What does this fold into?
Amino acid sequence: MIAFLGLGNMGAPMAANLVKAGLPVTGYDPVTTAPPGVVTAASAVEAVRGADVVVTMLPSGSHVLDCYREIVPETTPGTLFVDCSTIDVADARTAAGLATSAGHLAVDAPVSGGVVGAEAATLTFMVGGSAKAFAAAEPYLSQLGARSVHCGESGAGQAAKICNNMILGVSMIAVAEAFVLGEKLGLSHQALFDVASTASGQCWALTTNCPVPGPVPSSPANRDYAGGFAGGLMLKDLRLAQAAARSEGVSAQLGRHAAELYEEFVGHDGPGRDFSAIITAVRDGLLDKDTA
It folds into this structure.
């Protein structure tokens, strides 16, 4: 039996995909209801009793650590813990330590692909943990995504995630600025897309999550930036990347400036719309002030 804790925008479709794969899933979330097919538990402790696998998708490191401290004593040694949250590397290692010291297997397995990937089971998992724990987790992750990469020991999955999303945050700002400049120069969105998507400007932010409606019909820009990967979550990841960069003595100047721009954008627009909606702030001149 799988216990799934955290049934928000990402967790709910992930839990539903485990059910579609024929696996029994008991879920708990203090706010949202479980998707069809997921048995609802009254508490996290109730959800994990008798579970062979515990999957968590929670908002922050403090939530993960509080959860693990509550549930680890209630699970049978040998349980597999899979944390898919995006949290600080140090918190990920602490959480894994809580589990492994009690005789469990544990991996940190943050994801890339957003809500669309969660719904379609095409996520990429960046996994940290022992080879034995990764081997135990991979069959379950394969029901949730298209690829799982073993990045190293505990915390390595989180390290890969924040580095990847620093690239993504910076590249989305560059793509957004290019489209706004193209508009001013009289280029159609489609013309710029047709060139950049097959030239040296090609990147995921352009070809999968294009920030303007039209060229990529599945991108959130076609739904007024609803769904997708929320701007508030991008800001969270950029802040995690900056905290890690400071702790390791890495300047990461573009990452720092991206974090500052997303802070301005989220402060004005709110945290809910897809992160590609930052193009609206670029277009409206909301990011023009010096944030250095």
In short: The chain has a mean pLDDT of 95.
